[in-house]
Amino acid sequence: MISINKILSALADDTRRSIIIKLRKGKINSGDLADYLGISPQALSYHLSKLKNAELIYETKYKNFIYYELNLSVLGELIVWLDTLKGETNDEN
Fold first, then answer.
1. What domains, with CATH codes, occur in the chain?
2. Which of 24, 33, 57, 68 is the least buried, fewest Cβ under 10 Å from its Cβ?
3. Neighbour tally for 82: CB within 10 Å
4. pLDDT digits (tens, 9 = 90+) for 3-55
5. CA 15, CA 23: separation in Å to the nearest integer?
């Protein structure tokens, strides 16, 4: 299981949350993502690195392009953890 701290840290930034929201619609290549966000490829690379480190996204390569997609299993783990804060489970951790 990935660290909840890494996930929350990655999601603490507005740009990274915008990336997650965009990826909800499906995979996208890095060039189109940078254009959508209006940021440089270098800035995008930094944010993508943080999201990959938290395992919130993954990349696939096709020809000369790198595509990014959401890692829904990690988002599911986060939702389960958040549910424990609401008291919907008996987990005391």
1. 4-85 (1.10.10.10)
2. 24
3. 11
4. 889 999 999 999 999 999 999 999 999 999 999 999 999 999 999 999 999 99
5. 12
